[in-house]
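Reopening this ticket.

The earlier resolution said the output was attached, but the attachment link was broken on my side. Pasting everything inline this time so it's all in one place.
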Amino acid sequence: MNEATLLWSVLFGGVGVGFFSYGRKQKAIIPLLTGIALFFPYFIANTTLLVAVGVLLIFIPYFARFF
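Inline output:
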C-alpha cells in the first residue's frame, strides 16, 4: 500500500461514514447502503481502480434521486 492509496481510502471512508449516518438518521436506504459500500478500500489495492469505484459510489445517491 502506498501513500496515495492510503489517503484515498481515508477520504472514501470518511464520506462513507457521512452517508451511513445520514441514511440511518433519515431512514433512507440508498445513502445507508452507499455508506456501507464505501468501506471497499479494504478489498482493492490498485489506486486507479480505487478512485474509479469510489467516485462511482459517491455519485450513486445523487443519480438515484432521478429514478
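Reporter confirms the inline version is readable. Residues 3-64 form one domain. The first helix runs from residue 3 to 26.
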